[in-house]
Specification:
Strand content: 25-35%
Low-confidence stretches: none
Number of helices: 4
CATH topology: Cytidine Deaminase, domain 2
Number of domains: 1
Number of strands: 8
Shape: globular
CATH superfamily: Cytidine Deaminase, domain 2
Largest sheet: 6 strands, mixed
């Protein structure tokens, strides 16, 4: 994975975190049948809010349409949604109910502490892969193998 992808991801998550809000980015990739190469980070326009029930974020339909147009035009695909939580990383009920990634084999990655962590690998993160329409936890050893990050 290119270093720029990791840096852009952390910058976006930490920017939201500085305001005490969750943030989300999407990892775009080229797929070759054997795997995927992440080529870019898409930071969609998003509404992040804090309510009495907790933190929430939403990406609107127009922004999702803009993303789909870009994916079609560039021949890329959506590999992962990556978002932050204020504390430990876990997949909430809302994360399960309102995903952006929906394709078999794509990922949802939750980064703890608003992204204010060292991201040499994904072992501090909660990584989930869609299998048969469900988010299935990926063990840390497997996520480290699947996502090779720059040291």
């Amino acid at each position: 994975m290119p270093r720029e992808v990791v840096l852009k991801t952390l910058d976006a998550l930490q920017e939201g975190g500085e305001a005490g809000l969750e943030a989300l980015v999407l990892w775009l990739a080229h797929f070759d049948g054997q795997g995927a190469e992440v080529t870019d980070v898409w930071q969609p326009k998003q509404d992040s809010t804090r309510t009495k029930d907790g933190l929430h974020l939403r990406v609107g339909g127009a922004e999702l349409a803009r993303l789909n147009e870009d994916l079609y035009r560039t021949g890329r695909g959506l590999l992962a949604q990556v978002h932050s939580h204020p504390g430990l990383a876990y997949h909430s009920e809302l994360d399960d109910a309102k995903p952006i990634v929906t394709e078999q084999g794509t990922f949802s990655i939750v980064v703890p502490f608003f992204g204010f962590i060292s991201l040499h690998d994904l072992t501090a993160c909660a990584v989930f892969r869609i299998e048969d329409g469900l988010f299935v936890p990926v063990p840390p050893s497997e996520s480290a193998r699947l996502f090779v990050l720059p040291g």
